[in-house]
Amino acid sequence: MPIHDWTLVRANRFHHFHQDWTVEIARSLNRGLLPDGYLAMAERITGGPEADVVTLSLPVKPGTLGPAGIAIADARRTCAT
C-alpha cells in the first residue's frame, strides 16, 4: 500500500498523524474486532520491541469462560505497568 513520504514533512506533523493513527487503530479493535476479555491500548510499555498498539487480556471473572473463537498469543510480561 503506498503511503506518503513522511521524510518530507516536519517532525511535529508526522508525530500528530502517528498518534492519531495509533489511537484510531486501538479504537477500531475495541469496537468489536477483539474477542471478549481483550482490550487494545496505544502507547503501552510492555518490554521488548516498542509497539504502537497492544492488546491486553482482562482478568477472567470466577465462574465464567475465558475468551474463545480467535487465537491470540499473550506476550510474556517482562515489566510492571
Topology:
Elements: H1 11-33, E1 38-42, E2 53-57
Antiparallel strand pairs: 1-2
Task: Considering the chains and any ligands shown, give keywords for the structure.
12% strand; 81 residues; 1 helix; alpha+beta
Q: Enumerate the strands of the largest sheet in spatial order, edge to edge or round the barrel.
A: 1-2
Quick one: how many beta strands? 2
- Counting helices, strands and paired strands, the structural category is alpha+beta
Q: Overall mean pLDDT score?
A: 75
Overview of the structural elements:
The protein has 81 residues and is α+β, with helices and mostly antiparallel strands. It is built from one helix and two strands; from the N terminus they run αββ. It has one helix spanning 11-33; strands at residues 38-42, 53-57. Strands 1-2 form a two-stranded antiparallel ribbon. The longest helix has 23 residues, at 11-33. The N and C termini lie far apart (34 Å). The model has no long low-confidence stretch (mean pLDDT 75).
